[in-house]
Write a structure and sequence with these properties.
The protein is mostly helical. It has helices at 3-115, 137-148, and strands at 128-130, 133-135. It has a two-stranded antiparallel sheet. A hairpin with a 2-residue loop joins β1 and β2.
Length: 149
């Protein structure tokens, strides 16, 4: 056997090994593609009903939102009516009620002064406010005496 024949046999053996590896890889790839095809068909079988349910849910939510929008518009109208009614009542009865209350207070005060037969009340002690605090009149007097001396 010559060197060329040995080299040809070696190339043929390596070629056979390469083809066998490629055949195994292609067989595994075909098996994977079959499994993927089955998976996709199962997913599509389940996805169609899920999409139909999702579509029905979206339609239901849309109708509920339309109802909520109508309710919100009604509540806004009721609020505007209540505000208008409040301002009408306030303008119609507010002024006269204040006048009646003031008149009643004046009458009560006048009757209270007539009925009082005792000595008049001493005037209330005035307080001076200093930086958010009140100072009794007795302390003010002491302070004034010190400044006069």
């Amino acid at each position: 056997m010559t060197g060329g024949e040995v080299a040809g046999i070696l190339v043929a053996v390596f070629w056979a090994i390469l083809v066998s590896f490629l055949a195994v890889a292609l067989a595994r790839l075909a098996q994977t593609l079959r499994a993927t095809t089955k998976l996709v068909s199962r997913v599509s079988e389940q996805a169609v009903p899920l999409l139909a349910e999702a579509s029905a849910t979206v339609r239901s939510a849309h109708s509920q939102l339309a109802r909520v929008d109508a309710i919100t518009a009604d509540v806004q109208e009721v609020t505007a009516n209540a505000s208008a009614l409040s301002s009408t009542v306030s303008s119609a009865f507010g002024g006269p009620l204040v006048k009646v209350a003031a008149f009643g207070y004046g009458v009560r005060r006048a009757l209270g002064r007539k009925d009082a037969s005792g000595p008049p009340e001493p005037p209330r002690e005035r307080r001076r406010v200093v930086v958010g605090r009140s100072v009794p009149a007795a302390r003010r007097g002491r302070r004034n005496r010190r400044t006069e001396d």
